[in-house]
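Usage

Read records sequentially. Each one opens with the input sequence:
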Amino acid sequence: MNRALTRTLALFLVVGLSASPVGLAAVAVPADASADPAAESAATVAPGEAADAARADVTYVEDDVTENTTWTAEGGPYRIAADVTVEEGATLTVEPGTAVQPAADIRITVEGNLTVAGAASDPVTIATAPQAPDDVRWASIRYEGGPNSRLSLSHVTVENATTALTVGSSAGRLSLSHVTVRNVSRDGVRVADVARTPRLTVEDSTFADVGGRGVALTPGTGAVGESRVTSNSTEPSNRTEHQIALRPGLDTTMDALRVSYRGHGDVSHMNRSSFRRFGLDLNDNGSVERSLLPLVKEVNSSDKNSYEIRLRRSVTIPADATLRVAYEWVENPNTYGTYPVEVAVRTKGVAQTATTVLPFRLRSDGGQPALDEATSRVGGVTVRDSTFESVGEQGVFVAADEVRNVRVTGNSVSDARGSGIALRGREVGPVVVAGNRLAEIGPTADGIRVVSRRAADLTLRKNRVSRADAGIGLYAHDGNVDRIRLAANVVTDSATGLRVRHRPRYYSQHLSLTAVDNRFADNRGRGVSVVAPSSRVRNLTVRGNEISGNGRAGLVLRGNEVARIALRNNDVRRNDAAGVRVLAGKFLHSAVRNNTLADNRGDGFVARTELVVHDLSVAENRVLDNAGVGLNVDNSLTHAGAVNLTDNLVAANAYGIRVAGAFGGRILNNTVVYNTYGGAPVPMQDYRPGTGIVVEEGEAGAIFRTGDVSATLERLVDDRQVEEMLDRRVPDTYTVVLRPNRAAYVWEGSEGALAVRALSEDIPTGVVLRKSDENRQGVVVRGNDVYGHVRGMVVNVSTLVDANTTTRLFVNATRTVVAERNYWGADAGPTHASIHPEGTGDLVVTRQGWVDFIPSASSPFGPRRERPVANVTASPNPAPVGERVLVSGTQSSDADGRVETYRFRIRPPENGTLENVSGPTRSGPSSPEATATFQSTGNYTVSLVVEDDLGVESASAANATVAVRNRSAIRTTTVSAPTGTTTANASESPATTTTLPDSSENGLFPQLTAFTTLGGLLGLLLYGGGLVLGGVGAVQTVRRAGVSVGGKTINGLAVAGIAVWVVSGLLGTDGLLALGVGGGALWVALVVLLWALVRFVLD
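and closes with the structure output:
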């Protein structure tokens, strides 16, 4: 049969079948059903019959479950058309493969027992019917069980609900295992309307596309305190003023406040001018001490029953403050009664507290109840090994007055707008948060956030957090924080790695925590930030952590009194500010030991104190290649605190060691070498980079201890005006003398805003003064290796109060610093302008005060450290224009270590480019080789500076000159000659190289590149014109025809071209001199040849 005819008939058959009722039914049958006779029969029924059959397959449920009942896959799907309750004593069991289809807004209430037991291969589905529109949602499974009730969901998929599971009872036990909650508009699991949680376990489950929180454990109102909503009018439908008082109970950040009357009360006429009051009541007196009205950006109403205030920036409501709002143009509900008013404090659209519903009671007597429920508690809850994806607010959110015995372990949270795991409670702990993976958290949300008043026994370990605000955030207000342990966590690519904030109510309240074996790296801000400016920070241990590559300081610790701190075995490097920074009023009884502090863009370690630093040990640290001071102890007030800096290796920093204000300082047995930082240093005021040790007084003045001195302080003062002021003062054990603002003036402790009376009597907080006592306290510098600096040591200690020249509280200024038996880089000792001008070691400078450095050591106490030596070569050399040149530092060396960093540079840089060269940020070993490309001829200098594994630079740069020429000017020979390479601190060595020939050695016919110059091209035009015209004339002569151009003209053109070439060659253009000579010889030869040819032909 004709193939085209066959195709046409098949097409008509298909179209006809598709248009018939039988065809339409057949198309609807799945492919695998075509072999089933029953399916074929069903496919051929009429439309009305098909609908009846479909209804027959659905089991409609409208009655409560009053006895034990089982739903099976064969009996389903179960279409729930009315709210259903599983009554107390009854058990509803749902078998694998069963489909449960609640209708719109349907609630399944469990007062007895519910067991939904699907299988991995045949799960149970609880969702709206497949034919239902996408916006149809059923309400929730609501648990209201008693003490013996059980709710168990296993291998279940729950979809299209408002909230998948709502827990409204604290009795019984609930278990969710291998549950998938998907496409719910509010929360996955929510505990509400009950004062405490029941025993609840969520494991191996998935929560995806959740509009609110994945798991929300918020019994009662969470931690929200006494709150209320009131009205100026008690008449229904009146337009009046409402007031809201909201006490969040904990520190709460907000940039928006949303108020919803849930269908009652009209606020559609409100705008910004409707608000009479909006701000914070900080004293709990009913007034607003801090108005937020200036921060209001806009007021929106999405419908007539709700409004939202949006602020220009975020503000924090303190834990003990009340947010007060008063607004006009509100219409009361139409009838008397109690109405719910939902208040939500939001940041970036994410609610920060538990759902707060205030009762608004409209009644004739005007009474209004306050929201002040019983203490809410969360306990006995486990969420483990579950996944939270695309969550509108927090992944796991816990909020209650008391949060205890909560375990959140092994979960994965990603793409959450709120914090991944958030715990809020007046009291939090014991709690375990471990083994969780959290990524892509909201812009102002933390990976793990704990907000409390009092927190204790928190364990956070083996969590992995990235792309959050703070990877781990701990915030406490008004209470102690004890026994917080962070171990083996990894936080990267976040704003801050670990953020701790503590604000006490009383001075005695404290903060303590332990952080061991964590990694806080490559965050945009600080790696670790512990800020408690009014607190006692005690028993804080930071051990074995990696804190590296952060955009600000590595570790910042700030407290009023910082005591018993142990910073040990940490690796702190490559941070964009200081490695470790301690800021305190008092820094006591602490140790900084065996840390590596390297490659930071500020100080390696800095402790800045306002009042006293005492019993501080800084020992056995490696402090290398920091842009500021390696070890910096800076106390504002000069005092007798004991500070021991011993056995540290301090090298390649901008400055080595600085001790300011601590006259009990001991700098012993350190290696302080080559602190001549090669990058851009962070300058220290009044001191040049390249200084080994700085000893100076505190910038603010001094604390004098008079308790151990028989003479009165007045007898130690030579200024009579100061004596008179001291006579009038109330006698104290300690006297604080600050830098005066005018001559002969003493500031008392209250004027200086210092907590002088809080100083402990058992520590030496003052400088003990005895007249004519040569052995009194002073800084001791002994047994150190100090060399390789512009200045080895600078002493800058003046009289402690120098309002005028007569004030002498330091009676005798000698022996301010005892610096005997140090090695200064040479056996002849240090150089000092007046004491030891013949010395050849590092320079010692005394600006003010005095120093005793004799005798000095003639040899180093430890191994002699050497600078690395740079060596650079370039190949090929000479190099053609545009060809890559390999520059290599592989021959560089280091006598006592290894060369780690290579920094190449080309001069002049505008004519060359480098590839594969480490930049100004040195992140580790760099390539010893680089390539350069030169785009024009000339002599270029390639320089190389190297650093060793300590960060110490070579003393000078090694240089190599690269001759860049046109290709026509280069020929290759093999000779034994210098390479044009220099070695810093070393001699040159012969090598085989490519040499540059003289321009006259190119022969008679240079390469075509010679004709690309102006002289070459002009000469070619003249000389070529002569050749062409000469050739034409020769032909005309042979043919005995007339010559069109005379011989003088032709020879003139040739001679002009030759002259242009010769002159250009003499002026430096490669190849043209040889071209001119060759061209002249060729022209003479051609003229002689032509003459001979003409004579032969014509004769």
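Summary fields computed downstream for this record:
- Helices lie at 3-19, 21-28, 37-43, 47-57, 720-728, 1014-1038, 1047-1066, 1072-1098.
- The chain is about 10% helix and 40% strand.
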